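Supplementary Methods S3. Input chains for the assembly prediction are listed below.
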Amino acid sequence: MEAPSEQFLRLHPLTFVHSVFLSIVAFAYSWLTSLGPETTQFSSTATLIFAIITIVIAGPFAIAKFIRFRYYATSDELIIYYGVFKRVRRNIPAERIQNVAIKRNLLSRILGTASVRIETAGTDQTEGNLSYVGAREAQRLKDLLRTSKNTVNDPPPDQSIFSMPLRRVLVSSLYQFSHKITLILFTIFFQLLSLEIIDVRATIDYLVERGYFQETVSNHWPLITSLSIILTVMTGWGAGFIQNLIRFYNFKIELTPTKIQRRFGLFTLQEGSLSYKRVQSFLIRSNPVMRFRRWYRLELQTLGLQSGEQGFQPAMPFARWSEILDLAPKIRPFTLPESYTSVSLRTIQRYSIRYSWVIIVSVALFCLIWSTNALWGLLILPIVFLIALLQYQRHHWAFYDENLFIHRRILSQQFWIIPVERFQAFEITSSFFQRRLGLCTLIVDTAGAGTMRYPRIIDMRRGDAERLTEDLNLAFQRLEGKHSSSFD
Amino acid sequence: MEILDPAVKRVWTIKGLLGWGAVLPVTLTVDIILFFSNNNFFPPGLWTGILLVLSLSWILVIPRLRYHYWRYELRDKDLCAIRGIYNRVHTIVPLRRIQHLDVEQDLIEENFNIARLVVHTAGTRSTDVVVPGLPYDEAVRLRDTVREFIGQSID
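Predicted structure tokens for the full assembly:
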């Protein structure tokens, strides 16, 4: 392979600071988690040896990677040379570039660097990632690749179509709860407990001595349990508040004739554009508290590098229903249907049996290993029927105006809108029990859908599912026949 | 709808034997360790016995059932596949959505002159739809037919 010429540029030298920072975090984490009361000389030595090996191998590797990495951009193409063991030259023609995204985290902003990611039409992977270049260089690259003669240059949008002022970001943060951060905080808490840096018993005794509790109260386990639950909820809520505030601070979304432009973030500033072609479906979500105050969240299921959160992009993190219905159809037109079709009533029977079975087995197990008091658990059996009934009531669908609409779930409700031209494949699945009841599940596969969250209609009548699949397939074929643009 | 080549039952049986056989050294090691460790709880050879019963049942039953339920059909504008024993899955892939096609054949399949047609789409769940147990010539014919369709639809 020919060597890169003098015109080729290197990454920013401060790229090393990012690597060193990440290494320190990783080392601190592994060191902390390896500590504990049962820490032996052997495990400490093993951790140290592991750290030294990591530094000895990772250090030179990072340097080699930096030396090998070169790039050269013109308005026609971006060329990247990279690879330590396997050397690669990648040419990305500018006409294939759909998006140039710049991301700056807190460290980048302190160091004046930025990471530039290149998204193309032909793949759902990041085609090029320049981590890190100078902030000005990032902007130069973005402008240069945007001004490509083959790239459609949209006029800049006149005004922000949707933005979240600080007040709305703060209000939206009130509705958030973070399970992940709560879990991390509790892991750290239990690690500190095991290191005996925190002693719960001693803290309670201290509080009793200071007269905050009575002796009898401190021995009362339901109180301690209740306090722990309240603390957990408060921690999750606080963490969710901060996370949401940091993430969606100054959120702005603007629409050009072909692209969606977004900019948001407090510490990590994210800005980039997303082609309408990459939007596969709309998902409107809400939890019970949000719904109570009539707030919703619009996400776009996308194909491409910015596919965070299981392939979903927040388009309107916190908005009124009317605001969503004003913006979303500008990305891909749709009209909401007047009526929806329910799934089969037999879904209540199937869910009731399934949940009852789980409860009965759990109660039996608890009876065996704990006490017959577990039989009280059978009292929740009637609730099972209620949940199944609510699931039936909340699950309905409609195929209208070349879009498939699906409503699902009770608490964290989902409303899917899938344009017909985005269908990739159709799947009708039926488990053993569904077949006994004449039911099945229809799954509409789209590109870039998450493995956990994807559009499906559960427990349809078999005939309905077959008819709908036929209708969807016919509509797809008709539309594709018209446009012949399925290989975009 | 079309059925698969019956030879696929033998291919699946051989693959099942190889798969279960790979677990055998593990259960044998566990049983030997238990035998020499004054264990009174587990009877000797328990885990290997369980493995043999499970693997024999699997090998005798599953390939036949899989074969029995597998159906496929290449229609004018889509490829249709029905399969599954417990969970029955009926997939329809519009031919326009096919990104590329592969005819795959491993050593065992080559011995029985059968192949798999692998259909790649950009979808997430049905990214790869694999039609196994096709006579090699039939797999190639299907691939060429679909390729021709894709070529025409692009032109």
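Residues 64 and 232 of chain A are 46 Å apart (CA to CA). The two ends of chain A are 31 Å apart (CA to CA).
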